[in-house]
Amino acid sequence: MPAGRPPKGPRLVEGLDASEEAKSKLKVILETIAGDLSVSEACECLGVSESRFHQLREETMAIAAAGLEAKPRGRPRKEAPELAAELTQLREENEALKHELEKERVRTVLAEGLPHVGKDREEKKTADPVSRKDRRKRRKEERQRRKGGR
Questions:
Q1: Which of 31, 66, 72, 139 has a Cα at 20 to 30 A from 57?
Q2: CB < 8 Å & 24+ apart, contacts of 53-60
Q3: Residue 61 is part of which domain span?
Q4: Would residue 75 count as lying in a domain?
C-alpha cells in the first residue's frame, strides 16, 4: 500500500467555487480522462452527443492549459490616473510634433531642389531692388575696369 493520502481524482471538483452544473460537467469530463467513465456513459449523464462531448472536453482542456501558462512574477504595477492622462497627452503632442517636423523636412527638400517654386513675382522684384538699367550700367563699368587693368 502506498504511503500518503489516497488520490481524490475527480472528487477535487467538489471544493471549487462554481455552480453545481459546472461542477458536475467537469467531474464527468475528468472521470472520462481518468478512465472511470466511458464517453458514451458521459454523454448519457450530460445529455449531449458524442461530438458535443468531445468539443466540451477540448474546450475544458484548453482553458485548463491557459490557466497554467507562465505569468510575470509579482504584483502588476498600478499607474496613477493623473500620470496616465499626462502620458496620453504627451504621446499625442509627440505625434503632432513628429508630423510637423516631417512637413518641414519636405518643405526644406523642396526649397533646396526647386528654389524658384513657391516664390511669386512680387517677391522676386522686391528681392533685387536694383533696376535693370542700373545693372547694365554696373556691368559696363566692370568690363571697362577689367580692360583698363590689363
A1: 72
A2: 56/25, 56/29, 57/29, 57/32, 57/33, 60/26, 60/29
A3: 9-67
A4: no
C-alpha cell at position 18: 462554481
Within a domain: residue 80?
Answer: no
Q: 110: which 3 cell numbers?
A: 523642396
Within a domain: residue 34?
yes
Long-range contacts of 67-72 (CB under 8 A, 24+ apart): none
User: Rounded to whole angstroms, how far apart are CA atoms 105 and 99?
Assistant: 10
The set of cell numbers assigned to 81 is 490616473
Place of cell 522686391: 126
3-state secondary structure of 54: helix
Pure H helices in 35-130:
39-46, 50-67, 81-113, 121-127
Contacts of 146 by beta carbon, 8 Å cutoff, 6+ apart? none
| Ordered per-residue pLDDT tens for the chain, 150 residues | 567 787 777 777 888 888 989 889 999 999 999 889 999 999 999 999 999 999 999 999 999 899 999 988 888 877 777 888 889 999 999 999 999 999 999 988 888 888 776 666 555 555 556 788 888 999 999 988 888 765
Q: Return d(Cα 62, Cα 42) in angstroms, integer.
A: 19
Please answer whether residues 60 and 29 qualify as being in contact, where contact means their C-beta atoms are separated by less than 8 angstroms. yes
